[in-house]
Amino acid sequence: MPEPIAPPGPHDGSLASPLEALIDKAPLTGVQLRVVLLCALVTLMEGIDLNLIPLLAPAIAADWNLPSAAFGAIFSSGPIGLIVGGLGVGWLADRIGRRNALIAAMALMTLPTIATAFVVTVPQLLVCRILTGIGFGGVVPAAAALVSEFLPTRMRASVVAFVILGQAVGGFLASLAMQTSIAALDWQTLILWMGGLCAAATLVLLAFLPESPRYLLLRYPGSVKVAAALARLRLTEMPAPEADTKAAGRGSPLALFREGRAPGTLLLWAVFIGVCAAVSFFTSWLPLISSYAGKSAVEAAQIASAYWAGGIVSGILLPLFALRWNVNLVLMASILLAAVSSILLGNAIGGAMLGGLALAFVVGMFVSGSFYLLYPPAVHFYPTEIRSTGVGAAVAFGRIGNVASPLAASMLLELGIGPGNVFGAMAAPLALSLGALAWFHARRKSAA
Questions:
Q1: What is the mean pLDDT of the segment spanning 283-292?
Q2: Which ranges constitute the DSSP H helices of 65-155?
């Protein structure tokens, strides 16, 4: 029997805290719905912004007279910032609160996006994408922690996946826009519009987003702030503090390896690395490699739209499966199907358009679906006081895959490897994730 990842009980989040028990029994409120919708708005903005440069890559390449292979470094620059953002903002969320960290991440995403509209060289674009990536990296950990701490335990996995679905919706909307008259605008104007939308979303968060009640209880037990947060959730009972208040909200990266959590932490990082490698590849390279395979600019945008449409469908359906079955098992099935469909898309990308669209849709379902379901295992694994740090660290190490896969694709193209084989190569990191998750699940099961 494998050694348990962590002792069962509060340390792995398997037992409900006093506040969790109250939230689990109480009816849903408008405040909880507002938090979910605002966090979904944030990931929607991130999805549009994250996909804007890949979709505009042909226009930028033509404007600056760049070869396609040069975009390997550009596509990898954003994930470098994601590593910093995942670690930094996740750690910040455990110290200053989920709300404040999320707003800070949005500001970090907005300002460099606006600056991108004024760059004139590749190094300037690289710097802007790194800075924007810091914001990207912080949005999901803070949003996932905030949503999970507002909602009943039974709904967490599905609602967190729904919030992250905003990324796919954003990518879909961006790719649709590139098939309309909007695409006739110069790429600098499109980026300025994106920066304005991000700024507006940040102001909405400042006005309407509340702080996590669990975070407030940890930092300010028995205070007026806690009483007000509980009243908004229609909870009249003041629960007991959940942890040492001196440590509350001060998540330390070293805590991810204490109390038996080290094996689980390392396995989660491996799961994130493999899935994020596939996500980054398809997000960054799908339009450009489709063009490389002989598709027109409009056809490449249509293939990207089919990919993101599949991601939207999976964001709706897979959380329903996670309600019925263990989320780890649903995630394993999704990763396996993502690997198989990636190979099939590689064999079809140079052929008939209808086959390419259908397989892009399937790949989007299972690659994006795997990404949506990455977070619930980490959210459930770590206790509240280090939850954002734990999720943020997993995201940050997952960004190793985000950085490596665009560069690897660029190298393969420079070596003369065909587009089909480049798509098929994405099955390798997905196999890594599948093996690590199976091991993680076996250990969790033995610890229960």
A1: 76
A2: 71-96, 98-116, 122-150
Distance in angstroms (rounded) separating the CA atoms of residues 59 and 18: 55
pTM: 0.69
C-beta separation of 106 from 42 below 8 A: yes
pLDDT band with cut points at 50, 70 and 90 for residue 111: very high
Distance CA 432, CA 205 (A): 37
State the sign of the Cα–Cα–Cα–Cα dihedral 62, 67, 68, 70: negative
∠ CA 300-49-52, nearest 5°, is 25
Dihedral angle sign, alpha carbons of residues 372, 378, 383, 389? negative
**What is the distance between the alpha carbons of residues 381 and 183, in angstroms, rounded to a whole number?**
44
| pLDDT band per the 50, 70, 90 thresholds, residue 242 | low
Q: What angle do CA 260, 264, 267 make, to 5 degrees?
A: 150
CB 54 within 8 A of CB 288: yes
Q: How far is CA 48 from the centre of its chain?
A: 13
Question: Does 361 or 184 have the greater pLDDT score?
Answer: 361
Contact present, 285 and 345 (Cβ < 8 Å) = no
Written as six digits, the tokens of 108 are: 């970090």
pLDDT tens, 296-339? 767 777 888 888 889 888 877 877 787 778 888 889 999 999 99
Scan for tokens 């690897």, then name that residue: 408
DSSP code string of 195-244: HHHHHHHHHHHHHHPPPPHHHHHHHSTTSHHHHHHHHHTT--S-PPP-S-
* Per-residue pLDDT, 14: 40
On whether the CB atoms of residues 288 and 35 are closer than 8 A, the answer is no
**Quick check: 276 and 448 in contact, CB under 8 A?**
no
